[in-house]
Amino acid sequence: MAHQTTPQPSSPAPHRSYDTGSPWAAGGTVFAAVLLLVDGVLGVIKGIAGIAEDDVYTRVGDYTFKLNVTSWGWIHLVLGIILIVVGAGLFKGALWARAMGVALAGISVILNFMWLPYTPVWAIVSIAIGLFVIWALCTGSVRQDSRTA
Fold first, then answer.
1. Entry pTM
2. Helix and strand numbers, DSSP H then E, in the chain
3. Per-domain residue ranges for the chain?
């Protein structure tokens, strides 16, 4: 007796989900997206304050990374806008956003380290956010899933 198989309907496009070994990393990936958005908004605010040449930031006397506050403002504004876009991409599960998130969080950590003399507390908070984002995006892995979206 021959075994008859019925053709199965083709499955819809694969759905990406975050599969992690750690609950901290699973929640951390979503939290990393939120933090990228928050850090991006903070960067835009820092940038606008620097560009406006307001008295928000004090000028540092003899500092190795001497840029005028307006230049720092433009750097933070552009980086902030890009961080917002990447954070939104992470919410959509885009793989490019994970890679860009790690790279941009690293750049953000370096720039905020250079920004320390201008606003030490704000820079340290941004550094901590960047380090957590890097950890969360590197520990969470993306897997293909056959569930429907």
1. 0.68
2. 4, 2
3. 22-138
